[in-house]
Input
Amino acid sequence: MSLLYFTGFDFNQNPEHYFLYAAPYDINVFSAHFTGRYGGKCLGARESFGSRFGRVFINPAEQTLIVGVAGRFESFPSFGPVFQLNNININPNIELCIGANKVIYIRLRGTQTIDTGIFLDWNTWYYLELKGKIHNTQGEVEVRVNGVTVFSQTGLNTAYSSSILSSSYVTLIRDVGGWSFFDDFYICNTTGTKNNTFLGDIKVVTLFPTRDGTYNEFSVVGASNRYEAVDETTPNYDTDYVTQSGINLRQTFGFTAPSINGSIAGLRANVFARKDDAGSRFMKLLGKYNTTEVLHSTVSLLDNYKHYYSPIHEVNFATGNDWGVSELGTLEYGVKIVES
Ligand SMILES: [Ca+2]
Ligand SMILES: [Ca+2]
Output
């Protein structure tokens, strides 16, 4: 697999739900309910009491990562990072930074700063991509802005520690100044046959259920139809939901294919769920495309709600081919309760 992570920050206003490690802790200054780049929502970050960050854990660690994010910045009163490739000790290998003079800089190992000579305007969306290879003598950095290579160097020392030639985290960060907005964020590596290089200016589209699926073995609380209980942009917790306790019972939902052009890099499902009694409760995320079903690894539910993600499907799990846009109208996703 090459596509490791992506999000459009569309389905929960609390940024904790998008990051897999060390979430930011104050949603008033790092929040995900601002108007997105092309509709939907985006992440907004503003420093007031210290740096704000969201961090994705990359496991296993990768020597070369490609990261893309749409960014819009109010201003940088001083020099600060926008995103970082961090080693396992969270030390920065490579950072993409912006100065008060609007210039994009690359900072290596937290110390060596390289001026790319590229200026950004404030309050304008840009699609920023960084490819970074971590090595103490043969490191590489390439930066693209709106799909165009603006900086590329090889033979660099990009390793914070010469004994750790990889990145284990990608961090979006707001160090100082006004608001920064982030949308359409992806991370991939260079392996595999798909999504193994710059994806370019991508868009993450979030689909919410628009119909009940093939399996309707859960009860609905607080809504007329099951899918109407799970279709909110930001989940409404116990206001309306679907529930079940019986082992092997299933619930799936269908979607409306979006009106979009272009190819689909991949998709993943997420389910917002909790248990409501003492004792362990287990479920598996269940994908269905016509007669083909995929059942993912067992999740042990918490008492508090949490988003559980499916693996990324870079291709249609039934056909093995790239997803067609219209196929998203056939896809179903949901859950199955399991004993263990
Ligand atoms: Ca978005
Ligand atoms: Ca609901």
